[in-house]
């Protein structure tokens, strides 16, 4: 199985290598126990371009993969190719088999990353509409040249019909948006999305790349909550009936997901080298009161390395990825429990595990999809996703 050597989210390969050695003692998680149940690798599909996000449709019949389209020049600064990204649509078969429907189902995006399914309908968006992040910093030309004009920075959320691919609306997160008024600057690297049961939308902004622009814009990273009653108005460029709420997090948050059991909004941090994260890869659980106050509670866990996307099983087990380890890993946090590493069978190497998604099968077992961002890999359209099957007793071994 072909695997890549440079797999991570770094500004420059040299900085990465210099920093990597220093972090590995923390992030390889020697002290993190192995989860008692293994994940069975049932499919590896290498037809993507730096896949960052995976998302099943609401009915589980289709899988969407965001091709983040990093440029492939390790000697140049990290950057998403402006307009080079896309979202692929696949049909999900029995046992985790996948059939490509359309590699460029949604196209001409810049740095599409995390996605989420809207689970309640609004006037504008039917239930099942897919929301995806786009327009993130730092941007580059296909040859890796950084894009430095701030007016080209257009962070946004797009909403599309999973059947037709029609774009149903966009929420602007840029310099003229309500978000910039609330936090003090536009969103920078819009990394992941999640909905809670009521349909409120959560966004994490990693806060990486804003200083590529000349001049750099003012930036404050963290977690956003868009109240459900404001989604349609924001997508129509109208004043929101309820303002977006913001909880700053200076530690480069990457993933967000809502626990189906506790309703807590979990986020994690990725610590992109050479930046310093005081928590060295932390996890937080935010509640409604935290968003009302705009203050982050103490972390649940720290020192987990460079965490990327996360998801929950329907029974409340959190599954996330760690993208800076030797090797990279999948991290399991049982409901009310401590982090563990997931052993895989066969023991494949993950080439940059990013924003995962989980589908529950009819017998209660799960399919976990791990897209593998292969940063600064010079060959597009051969990057992999790995599909992992987890048995029905996975949550209660
Ligand atoms: Ca991510
Ligand atoms: Ca996710
Ligand atoms: Ca490649």
Q: Secondary-structure map with pairings?
A:
Blueprint: H1 13-27, E1 39-48, E2 51-56, E3 62-67, E4 80-81, E5 85-92, E6 98-109, E7 115-117, E8 130-134, E9 139-140, E10 156-160, E11 167-172, H2 178-183, E12 190-195, E13 201-205, E14 222-226, H3 228-235, E15 245-248, E16 253-258, E17 265-269, E18 283-286, H4 288-293, E19 307-312, E20 318-322, E21 329-333, E22 340-341, E23 344-345, E24 357-360, E25 366-371, E26 383-390
Parallel strand pairs: 1-23, 4-9
Antiparallel strand pairs: 1-26, 2-3, 3-5, 5-6, 7-8, 8-10, 10-11, 12-13, 13-14, 14-15, 16-17, 17-18, 19-20, 20-21, 21-22, 24-25, 25-26
One calcium ion binds at residues 52, 113-114, 191-192, 254-255, 308-309, 354-355.
Brief account:
The protein has 397 residues and is mostly beta strands. 9% of the residues lie in helices and 35% in strands.
Principal-axis shape equals globular
Structure classification:
mainly beta
The amount of helix comes to under 10%
Q: Write down the domain tally.
A: 1
Instruction: Give the rounded overall mean pLDDT.
Output: 91
The CATH architecture term is 6 Propeller
What does this structure look like?
The chain has 4 helices and 26 strands. It has a single domain, classed as TolB, C-terminal domain (Neuraminidase). The N terminus is likely disordered. It is globular. With about 400 residues, it is mainly beta. The strands form 7 sheets. The protein has a 5-stranded mixed beta sheet, with no helix packed on it. The protein has a 4-stranded antiparallel beta sheet with strand order 2-3-5-6, with no helix packed on it. The protein has a 4-stranded antiparallel beta sheet with strand order 7-8-10-11. Bound molecules: calcium ion (CA) (3 copies).
């Amino acid at each position: 199985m072909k695997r890549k050597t440079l797999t991570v989210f770094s500004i420059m390969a040299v900085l990465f290598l210099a920093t990597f050695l220093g972090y590995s003692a923390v992030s390889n998680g020697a002290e993190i126990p192995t989860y008692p149940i293994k994940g069975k690798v049932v499919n590896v599909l290498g037809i993507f371009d730096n896949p960052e996000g995976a998302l099943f449709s609401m009915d589980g019949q289709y899988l969407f993969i965001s091709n983040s389209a990093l440029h492939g020049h390790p000697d140049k600064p990290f950057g998403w190719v402006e307009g080079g990204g896309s979202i692929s649509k696949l049909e999900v078969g029995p046992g985790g088999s996948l059939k490509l429907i359309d590699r460029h189902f949604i196209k001409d995006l810049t740095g599409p990353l995390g996605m989420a399914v809207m689970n309640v309908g609004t006037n504008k968006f039917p239930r099942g509409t897919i929301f995806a992040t786009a327009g993130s910093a730092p941007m580059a030309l296909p040859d890796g040249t950084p894009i430095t004009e701030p007016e080209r920075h257009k962070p946004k959320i797009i909403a599309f019909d999973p059947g037709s691919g029609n774009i149903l609306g966009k929420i602007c997160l840029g310099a003229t948006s309500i978000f910039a008024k609330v936090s003090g600057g536009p969103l920078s690297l819009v990394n992941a999305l999640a909905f809670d049961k009521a349909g409120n939308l959560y966004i994490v902004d990693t806060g990486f790349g804003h200083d590529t622009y000349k001049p750099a814009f003012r930036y404050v990273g963290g977690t956003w909550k868009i109240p459900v009653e404001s989604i349609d108005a924001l997508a129509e460029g109208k004043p929101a009936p309820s303002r977006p709420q913001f909880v700053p997090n200076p530690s480069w948050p990457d993933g967000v997901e809502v626990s189906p059991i506790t309703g807590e909004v979990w986020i994690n941090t990725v610590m992109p080298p050479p930046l310093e994260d005081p928590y060295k890869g932390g996890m937080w659980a935010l509640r409604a009161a935290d968003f009302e106050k705009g203050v982050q509670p103490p972390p649940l866990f720290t020192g987990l390395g460079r965490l990327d996307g996360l998801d929950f099983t329907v029974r409340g087990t959190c599954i996330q990825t760690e993208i800076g380890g030797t090797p990279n890993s999948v991290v399991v946090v049982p409901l009310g429990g401590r982090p563990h590493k997931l052993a895989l069978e066969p023991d494949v190497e993950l080439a940059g595990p990013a924003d995962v998604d989980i589908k529950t099968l009819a017998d209660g077992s799960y399919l976990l999809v791990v897209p593998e961002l292969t940063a600064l890999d010079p060959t597009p359209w051969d990057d992999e996703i790995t599909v992992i099957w987890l048995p029905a007793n996975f949550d209660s071994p």
